[in-house]
Description:
This protein has 114 residues and is mostly helical. 88% of the residues lie in helices and 0% in strands. It is built from three helices and no strands. Helix 1 packs antiparallel against helix 2, helix 1 packs parallel to helix 3 and helix 2 packs antiparallel against helix 3. The longest helix is centred in the last third of the chain and has 42 residues. Pfam families: PTS_IIA.
Amino acid sequence: xxxxxxxxxxxxxxxxxxxxxIMEALYASREGKFEEAEVILKESRNxxxxxxxxxxxxxxxxxSGEHLPFSLLIMHAEDQMMSVETIADLVAEMINMYKExxxxxxxxxxxxxx
Length: 114
């Protein structure tokens, strides 16, 4: 495998790993493991960045005049990358919501104990 296929699979592989980690962070936060969730979410951004880097290289080639053939595989890779970006934003917000819910739960529990 070489050329465009390799770039596409590089993007798909990296953003797929990022997506798995993002979901893992969400599950950890649902269990109240907020520090672990933040670490996983931060690490997922590294994989998303690797996907972006591969994509940016294609954009630079095309911008410099190199003709890049249309590819459904690249289109799929871009779709995956954009979806993972959206999921990452939503999960970051959901983690904040879990933190807030946990804080409210702790306040309520403290008042009930007193």
